[in-house]
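Posting here for the record, re: S-adenosylmethionine.
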Amino acid sequence: MIRVVGIGLNGKDSLTIEVKSIVENASILMGSQRHLKYFPDYLGVAITLENFIKDIKNLKELNKDNKSIVILVSGDPLFFGLGRLLLQEINNKDLEFYPNLTSIQLAFSYIKVPWHDAHFISIHGRNLDELILSFRKGEKKIAILTDSYNSPQVIANIYLSLNLSKNYDIWVCENLGKIDQKINCFSPQKLINLEQYEFSSLNVVIFIENNNVILNKQEYKQLPILGIEDKYFLTFKDRPGLMTKREVRIAILGELNLQPKQIIWDIGAGTGSVSIEISRLSNTSKVYAIEKTAVGINIITQNCKRFRTHNVIPMPLMSLEELYELPSPDRIFIGGSGGKLIDILEICQQKLRKKGCLVISLATIENLGISINWFKNNSWYYSLFSIQVSRSLAIANLTRLYPTNPVFLLKASRKYE
Ligand SMILES: C[S@@+](CC[C@H](N)C(=O)[O-])C[C@H]1O[C@@H](n2cnc3c(N)ncnc32)[C@H](O)[C@@H]1O
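Prediction output follows.
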């Protein structure tokens, strides 16, 4: 039988009497040098683990003799530990696990945050794809097991270069449970400014979402006239990817052919990012940020406050008929249609002012087909392009590209005799 015993941060004392006796009575005790040192009085055969392939081979041989073998590991063997690999190599009838507290569990206790809903990732000797994916998904809590190469600064750099709309506090928990334990909270920016600082190689990094981003005076003053970075917008907590990305937003603003003193409808406004950019470009225009979800309206209202816009009107829309009550627009942008694209287009046909134009962003080929057919059948001019942006991403000293979703931008106006 092979018993895999998790050691806690205070070594032998972290084990119950029962588990301690299992260790002490084992005929073979395997572990790292550090772990074996916790049992100086052990009388059996002690083997230092060094190389996984060699160790497994050795272990399989020893197991044939029906010896009682104990392997010491840190924390919970089945939490990014040796346990998973042992299960791949050894019959699970021959394995028993005795877990201890994991480093992540301890870290969450120290920072006083519940952890049942956290997302766990190990980049300890692994690639960073899963980490990038969880940033892009906007997970609320991300707990990361690191190694000396993938340091907290490297992680913060990756997060910042993704230029996402979610903001986080980053906790770096070093040497947990040891005398030199350190637990500190940083903003991503502050962390990358610590370029030269060396954190202990034994650390876990925890990202906790921070929704209290308020633009300070300085940041507000430095906002560009066009193309605000995504991270400044408040987004849907559960679906951060729902926002129209900055590069696409810039293209939409160009396609809209904006002029002063216009009425603009932004249908399916979502976070209001397009409305807010329009309002900053043209402060004499009136922008109706039309949105059917209450959450969306709340986010639009908060974003308007955040960017101090005075000419965006968040418009909750219970039924499409309410669009008839709004002032006729010079420009319409449709960013979301909730499955009612044709009904919306019919209303736009009646309400759009002469010489007005309409821009739709479409993520699916089906909706593109529906739109084109409708424009053809109703004798509108239309043109379109597809846009697919890949953004740069800093991985240590290298730069990689990662793709964002492609969209179609369709622009249309009515034909007049
Ligand atoms: C291979 S994983 C082992 C995880 C282990 N099974 C557990 O339950 O915690 C090793 C990683 O755990 C983290 N770690 C382990 N002990 C730690 C400690 N005392 N302080 C901070 N991080 C620790 C580090 O990120 C390290 O790279």
